[in-house]
Amino acid sequence: MRLLNKILIRVKRIIIFKKGIYGKIGRKNKFTKGVFLSGGGSVGNYNYIGPYCMINNAVIGNYCSLGPNVKLGQAEHSKDFWTTSQIISKRMINHSLNKSKTVIGNDVWLAANVVVLQGVKIGDGAIVGANAVVTKNLPPYSIAVGVPAKVIKYRFDIDEIQKIEKSNWYNYDLKKAIITLNHL
Question: Which CATH code is given to the segment(s) 24-155?
């Protein structure tokens, strides 16, 4: 029954021109041209996913914006084995390309061409600059740039961050989120 349901969902998405969207998706998201979301990925609510993004082994919160060509949780080949070929390493050492989920918090903005490696967590409200490669976790409301990405500053002071986090506005529908933000 579960397999049949999965097949029906994929057929429905293909029919409505959402080719390549196989993972779990929430409400009111905008997927632009050429987006790929693997079956191991999930996207929350009210997100914008820019052209040619690849979401492999990742979980995305609510109200996020992904610029063009963002890559999340891409496969990692074996590097300590005799070969990086997945067709061999899978059979010989049972190597999996997907080891740990990449987690993108709520209200995160990933600019064009950002790459976030498997297992990395990006906190709520963070911003990552164009062309950055995120290899380590980023704290909430940080701004990070570069290769590898480094935090250059925070969007707000600690009191403001705590106030925003306490509001949980990103867990609400659009109307209530706006009302909540207006009262901060």
Answer: 2.160.10.10
